[in-house]
């Protein structure tokens, strides 16, 4: 599925608007991201009439590329200072409020990020099917400091997904801050985007950027997932003009 | 050779002495030292003696241990305050971690050493946790090999929910942890080897940021060659429930179909457990006000509760002669007193199920010269007064502040033991 033009479905950079504050405050606690257990969700007064939509996202990429760190980054957790192999499946829940452009409705996206170590995937057969079970989106990761991981992208995309899958696909380049050691050039990235029609995001560096740093990726995920669901529900004539209106609640997963 | 305070773990192949990994210190020991440590052990073996530990003249301590006749672990401490017992536990726990993550077969496969080296990296997270000090705060299990428990005001409610949840997940092994301590566990979970229960708690603690996990694990005693799946769900930050499963059900399935429906009704109860905090006893159990810390072990069930209650800055005029002890200091003293008492006077709870792991007794064998075995012991230091008490079923280690008269320790300890055991049926 071709990806959506950024900002066509949801309000871009909404986290910078003053009116979004009361929503974003629900995912913050003492200026850091709030931690939610599985039994919890952002507490919203009923008059706000905000729905929570749930999606499962699988993070795929070579060993050491930074899958666990990306999940921590998106969730606003402390990024591990040391690299450890992930020896199984770990999931992380991220809540993210979004305002739909057309209707002005606010939705809370609940992304559950699934991260699985490459060695574990290889050693145990049940892992990959488990990660792919009812998955809505896949983030394909490569590291800017490892050219092989970039070359491996197309392989991975072919191996894990099938053309008929109804899955949102995005590519994330990690360790973008280590530009001195960068191994992947801008033109290579641009060419990849053109050939595959999949947007590429760059991540890395300090988390001091706060929400601003993760907003482009989370917004794009939300936008593409919402668009995919709307298309599936038949409420949207392709490609990017959205008319979610009343049809929104039935298509929640 | 090593900075004080640091402990390093080395792993080598037992027969050829090829170094496989080293963890613990940022400054690795020079290769020549590692070689000598291995060499001196090998020399001993050549003379039909087993070198198990030694002290260096600069206050260091080294301990060797060969597992499965294939791998050797060496613990090196730069600090003589690290007891032999602590090092021994560290080596056992490290080995168990390796089995937990990789399984016994993988560890026994020494034909491809480079491959094994790569595979062993998967254990580093857990091993580093064992070596790290901050995570240990208040956790005694890795030392006592008894599960750290939390006694809640409504145990039956949680127990019933856990039993039902575990069964619904097609498992018999379920456990509810609050801040890393066992608040409830199914009968089968308690039948796991105590070391396994302790290790699984440590594993769950190490995953604290995640919402849920599906980890393949081998049980070092129960199932060292066949992997099981540990499914863990973070119900609230600090409250985790886990089950041990076979190939099904999937993580997604349990999470979407079972977690909410079994645990949502108990959200408030779980929150109250969290509020108990470091105190592993319900608020209804009153301890003597001079109690600094206590460790109570149930020797039959191999469970323990530990409480740290350092004095808060009191309204009374500050007594400058006695500085207040911090919580971490209290934990440290409690740990030291446990080691002191258990290596000198009391018996240690070694599991008999694993003959391979039975060690020569630790050096201090006070009781050998006596026809009786001590049931009480006490120790007065500059910082606190300690009292230890042993019954057939329990061991109590109590730390009191210096204001308590020494002659009162015994009755306070006896009283404390009966208060806690009576009130909680522990």
Automatic annotation (TrEMBL), chain A:
Residue ranges of the region described as Disordered: 232-253
Domain of life: Eukaryota
One BP annotation, GO: exocytosis
Gene3D superfamilies given in the database record: P-loop containing nucleotide triphosphate hydrolases (3.40.50.300)
Subcellular location: Cytoplasm, Cytoskeleton, Cilium basal body
Pfam families to which the protein is assigned, alphabetical: Ras (PF00071)
Keywords, comma-separated and alphabetical: Cell projection, Cilium, Cilium biogenesis/degradation, Cytoplasm, Cytoskeleton, Exocytosis, GTP-binding, Nucleotide-binding, Protein transport, Transport
An example Gene Ontology molecular-function term: GTP binding
Family: Belongs to the small GTPase superfamily. Rab family.
Protein name as it appears in the record: Ciliogenesis and planar polarity effector 2
From TrEMBL, chain B:
Domain FUZ/MON1/HPS1 first Longin: from-to ranges: 8-130
One GO CC term, this protein: cytoskeleton
Keywords assigned by UniProt, alphabetized: Cytoplasm, Cytoskeleton
Residue ranges of domain FUZ/MON1/HPS1 second Longin in the record: 171-255
Localization annotation: Cytoplasm, Cytoskeleton
InterPro entries attached to this UniProt entry: FUZ/MON1/HPS1_longin_1, FUZ/MON1/HPS1_longin_2, FUZ/MON1/HPS1_longin_3, Fuzzy
GO biological process, one term: non-motile cilium assembly
Domain FUZ/MON1/HPS1 third Longin: start-end pairs: 293-421
Residues that span the membrane, as ranges: none
Family the UniProt entry places it in: Belongs to the fuzzy family.
Protein name per its UniProtKB record: Protein fuzzy homolog
Species name: Chanos chanos (Milkfish)
Underlying gene: fuz
């Amino acid at each position: 599925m071709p990806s959506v033009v950024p900002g066509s479905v949801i309000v871009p950079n909404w986290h910078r608007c003053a009116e979004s504050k009361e929503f974003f405050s629900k995912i913050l606690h003492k200026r850091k991201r709030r931690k939610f257990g599985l039994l919890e969700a952002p507490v919203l007064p009923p008059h706000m009439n905000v729905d929570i939509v749930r999606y499962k996202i699988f993070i795929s990429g070579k060993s050491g590329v930074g899958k666990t760190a990306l999940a921590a980054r998106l969730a606003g957790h402390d990024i591990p200072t040391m690299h450890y192999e992930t020896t199984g499946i770990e999931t992380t829940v991220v809540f993210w409020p979004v305002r739909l452009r057309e209707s002005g409705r606010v939705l809370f996206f609940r992304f559950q990020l699934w991260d699985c170590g490459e060695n574990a995937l290889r050693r145990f057969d049940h892992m990959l099917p488990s990660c792919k079970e009812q998955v809505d989106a896949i983030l394909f990761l490569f590291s800017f400091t490892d050219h092989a991981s970039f070359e491996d992208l197309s392989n991975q995309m072919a191996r894990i997904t099938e053309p008929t899958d109804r899955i949102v696909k995005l590519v994330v380049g990690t360790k973008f801050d280590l530009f001195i050691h960068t191994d992947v050039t801008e033109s290579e990235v641009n060419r990849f985007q053109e050939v595959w029609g999949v947007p590429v995001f760059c991540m890395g560096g300090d988390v001091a950027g706060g929400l601003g740093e993760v907003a482009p990726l989370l917004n794009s995920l939300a936008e593409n997932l919402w668009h995919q669901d709307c298309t599936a529900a038949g409420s949207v004539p392709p490609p990017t003009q959205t008319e979610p209106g009343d049809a929104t609640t039935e298509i929640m997963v | 050779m090593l900075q004080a305070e640091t402990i390093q773990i080395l792993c080598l192949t037992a027969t050829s002495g090829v170094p496989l990994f080293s963890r613990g210190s940022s400054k690795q020991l020079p290769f020549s030292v590692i070689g000598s440590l291995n060499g001196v052990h090998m020399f001993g073996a050549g003379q039909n003696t087993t070198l198990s530990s030694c002290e260096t003249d600069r206050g260091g301590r080294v301990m060797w241990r060969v597992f499965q006749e294939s791998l050797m672990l060496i613990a090196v401490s730069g600090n003589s305050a690290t007891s032999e017992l602590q090092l021994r536990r560290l080596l056992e726990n490290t080995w168990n971690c390796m089995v937990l993550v990789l399984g016994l077969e993988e560890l026994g496969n020494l034909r491809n050493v480079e491959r094994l080296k790569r595979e062993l990296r998967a254990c580093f997270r857990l091993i580093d946790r064992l070596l790290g000090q901050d995570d240990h705060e208040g956790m005694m299990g890795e030392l006592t090999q008894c599960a750290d428990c939390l006694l809640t005001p409504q145990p039956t409610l949680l127990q019933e929910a856990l039993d039902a949840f575990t069964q619904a997940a097609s498992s018999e092994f379920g456990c509810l942890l609050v801040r890393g301590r066992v608040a409830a566990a199914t009968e089968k979970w308690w039948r796991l080897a105590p070391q396994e229960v302790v290790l699984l708690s440590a594993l769950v603690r190490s995953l604290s940021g995640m919402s849920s996990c599906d980890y393949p694990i081998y049980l070092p005693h129960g199932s060292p060659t066949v992997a099981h799946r540990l499914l863990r769900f973070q119900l609230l930050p600090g409250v985790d429930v886990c089950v041990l499963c076979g190939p099904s059900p999937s993580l997604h399935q349990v999470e979407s179909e079972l977690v909410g429906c079994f645990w949502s009704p108990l959200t408030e109860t779980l929150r109250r457990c969290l509020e108990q905090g470091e105190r592993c006893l319900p608020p209804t159990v009153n301890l003597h006000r001079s109690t600094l810390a206590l460790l109570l072990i149930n020797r039959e069930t191999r469970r323990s509760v530990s409480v740290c209650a350092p004095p808060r800055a009191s309204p009374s005029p500050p007594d400058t002669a006695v500085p207040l002890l911090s919580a971490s200091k209290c934990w440290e003293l409690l740990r030291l007193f446990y080691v002191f008492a258990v290596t000198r006077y009391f018996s240690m709870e070694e599991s008999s199920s694993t003959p391979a792991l039975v060690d020569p007794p630790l050096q201090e064998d006070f009781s050998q010269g006596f026809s009786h075995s001590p049931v009480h012991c006490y120790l007065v230091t500059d910082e606190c007064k300690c009292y230890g008490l042993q019954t057939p079923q329990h061991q109590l280690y109590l730390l009191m502040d210096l204001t308590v008269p020494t002659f009162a320790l015994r009755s306070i300890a006896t009283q404390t033991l009966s208060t806690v055991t009576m009130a909680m049926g522990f």
